[in-house]
Design goal:
The strands form 2 sheets. The chain has a two-stranded antiparallel ribbon with strand order 1-2. It has a two-stranded antiparallel sheet with strand order 3-4. It is 44% helix and 17% strand. The protein is built from 6 helices and 4 strands. The protein is α+β, with helices and mostly antiparallel strands. Helix 2 (50-65) crosses helix 4 (95-107). It has a single domain (9-162), classed as Arc Repressor Mutant, subunit A.
């Protein structure tokens, strides 16, 4: 069976974005046409379906590296912030975009929070989480997409047929 580990991201992510858009698992918010995706960007994305592509990339990262949190995802999707005459520093992606996408993926039943421990807060006990991991339904979707693009991947990368 082909899994997410067998398919490169440049083939897998567009196919997963198309599957998620068809599946109605994710929907683009109204404000998504006006926001930048990171602090190092100057303008909003030019693609009309960028929300689905970002959600697919987030789901792929969770499937490969889960449990994973919002901060780690923001660092992974960030770039280099231009500081003028000063050296460039790492720029993080928008955490609001990542959180909203994760909330939509949770409502669709594709990812879930991983509880770690309960600590005592000012208002009583507070549940802490280690991040999010993929659910069985999410794994089924990801593996189904990976299996559907296997032939295209083998034609583009002939060495992958060994795996």
């Amino acid at each position: 069976m082909t899994t997410v580990f067998d398919i490169p991201a440049d083939i897998f992510n567009p196919a997963l974005a198309k599957a998620m858009a068809d599946h109605d698992a994710v929907s683009m918010p109204d404000w998504a046409g006006y926001v930048k995706t990171a602090v190092d960007r100057e303008r909003p994305p030019a693609q009309a379906d960028w929300w689905y592509a970002r959600s697919a990339a987030i789901l792929r990262k969770i499937a490969r590296n889960g449990p994973i949190g919002v901060t780690h995802l923001a660092q992974a999707f960030g770039g280099k912030k231009d500081n003028g005459a000063m050296p460039n520093t790492p720029g993080v992606a928008s955490r609001h975009i990542i959180r909203t996408s994760l909330q939509q993926l949770e409502e669709a039943g594709l990812v879930e929070k991983v509880p770690t421990k309960v600590v005592e807060g000012e208002d009583g006990p507070v549940q802490l989480y280690a991040g999010r991991r993929i659910t069985a339904a999410g794994q089924k979707l990801v593996n189904g997409v990976a299996h559907s693009v296997r032939e295209e991947t083998e034609s583009m990368y002939p060495g992958l047929d060994k795996y």
